């Protein structure tokens, strides 16, 4: 559901209640959200004993058995990841009501490079973005006078520093790993955008982009009841689309957890193998997955001895350099510019992998 559709669906009951008692109030919505959060927390705390009870008592699998270990991993991580996903998508849905694409375009218009790169990378985290919106966002930024390097900082940050991945990493590994992911992703977006701005690559943008006229969109400022409904709409839309990918990712992670020997991944994804980071990036580019689906695989790889830097490089390559997104961007960028884009971002990801393998 789009933002305009969400607004329209909410206005109708509000207009119908103008002559009488309001059907919904802000206080009622806040109370309902608070009750839902409490219920969420109570259920979340019981996931570990529930998964053990289901796997070993109900199904009757042996805890020391590989199949039992894999099933217990899936029974615990599937509801855990989906619950975390629903909570963060709801919060981000509300946050995004403050940062629409048009608002972002206005904030970045006229910004000089360096300052603009930092702002664009930061806004990329909270602004609605998906592969299908890459082309209209790019056109809107360029025609609004946003420098090309600043635009690329946004295009890199928006998919790479994924708020879903950030919260899932925090929930599964703690704040240190989440902070590493956030800082390195922002660093790559800022530096890569600045470098591409210095290269003066405007001539490699498809000519028709500069001839396009984008009108200014008038946007209403929603109230808090509307924002809550927009958060719920985001949960229905996003979680409803990605849950199959999440379950597939958890199933792959469960198989790795149960059947791959301990420290097996250290042989080719460990910090001792110099070629592990470039291999991880090469393997990640053709993969098509979302952040929520790749995190359980990351968790299982780390448990089996893979190095943190190598795994981060793999995850960033999957999210930021996916082949489907490059195909979409080809509509507005020449092949040469896409190659430069992938090369600059790829070098940044390689550096992250090597640095973290050395220091962590």
State the helix count: 18
Largest sheet: none
Residue fraction in strands: under 5%
Report the order of strands and helices.
HHHHHHHHHHHHHHHHHH
Mean pLDDT: 79
Radius of gyration: 22 Å
DSSP strand count: 0
Terminal CA distance:
42 Å
Low-confidence stretches: 1-21
> What level of helicity do the residues show?
over 70%
Into how many domains do the coordinates divide? 2
Envelope shape: globular
Structural class: mainly alpha
What does this entry look like structurally?
By secondary structure, this protein is mainly α. It is built from 18 helices and no strands. It has 2 domains: 1-96 and 224-241, no CATH class; 113-215 and 260-360, no CATH class. It has helices at residues 3-16, 26-45, 47-58, 66-96, 101-108, 115-126, 134-143, 148-160, 163-173, 175-198, 207-210, 224-259, 266-269, 276-284, 291-303, 308-320, 323-329, 335-359. The longest helix has 36 residues, at 224-259. Mean pLDDT is 79; it is low at 1-21.
Which features would summarize this protein structure in a list?
mainly alpha; 360 residues; single chain; 74% helix; 18 helices
Brief summary:
The chain has 360 residues and is mostly helical.
Task: Set down the secondary structure blueprint.
Blueprint: H1 3-16, H2 26-45, H3 47-58, H4 66-96, H5 101-108, H6 115-126, H7 134-143, H8 148-160, H9 163-173, H10 175-198, H11 207-210, H12 224-259, H13 266-269, H14 276-284, H15 291-303, H16 308-320, H17 323-329, H18 335-359
């Amino acid at each position: 559901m789009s933002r305009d559709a969400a607004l329209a669906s909410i206005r109708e009951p509000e207009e119908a209640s103008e002559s009488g008692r309001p059907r919904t109030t802000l206080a009622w919505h806040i109370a309902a959200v608070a009750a839902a959060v409490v219920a969420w927390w109570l259920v979340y705390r019981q996931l570990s004993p529930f998964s053990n009870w289901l796997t070993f008592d109900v199904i009757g699998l042996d805890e020391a058995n590989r199949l039992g270990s894999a099933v217990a991993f899936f029974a615990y991580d599937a509801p855990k990841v989906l619950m975390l996903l629903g909570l963060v998508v709801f919060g981000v849905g509300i946050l995004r009501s403050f940062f629409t694409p048009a608002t972002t375009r206005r904030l970045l218009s006229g910004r000089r490079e360096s300052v603009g790169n930092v702002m664009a990378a930061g806004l990329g985290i909270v602004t609605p973005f998906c592969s299908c919106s890459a082309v209209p966002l790019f056109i809107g930024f360029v025609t609004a006078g946003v420098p090309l390097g600043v635009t690329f900082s946004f295009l890199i940050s928006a998919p790479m520093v994924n708020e879903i991945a950030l919260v899932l990493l925090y929930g599964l590994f703690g704040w240190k790993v989440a902070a590493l992911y956030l800082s390195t992703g922002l660093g790559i977006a800022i530096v890569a955008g600045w470098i591409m701005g210095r290269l003066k690559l405007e001539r490699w943008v498809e000519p028709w982009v500069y001839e396009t006229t984008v009108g200014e969109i008038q946007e209403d400022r929603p109230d808090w009841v509307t924002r809550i409904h927009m958060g719920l709409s985001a949960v229905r839309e996003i979680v409803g689309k990605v849950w199959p990918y999440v379950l597939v990712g958890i199933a792959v992670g469960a198989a790795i957890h149960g059947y791959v020997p301990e420290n097996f991944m250290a042989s080719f994804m460990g910090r001792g193998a110099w070629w592990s980071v470039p291999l991880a990036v090469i393997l990640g580019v053709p993969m098509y997955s979302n952040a929520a689906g790749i995190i359980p695989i990351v968790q299982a790889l780390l448990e089996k001895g893979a190095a943190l830097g190598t795994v981060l490089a793999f995850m960033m390559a999957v999210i930021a350099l996916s082949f489907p997104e490059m195909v979409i961007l080809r509509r507005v960028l020449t092949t040469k510019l896409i190659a430069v884009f992938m090369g600059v971002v790829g070098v940044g990801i390689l550096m992250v992998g090597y640095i973290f393998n050395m220091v962590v």
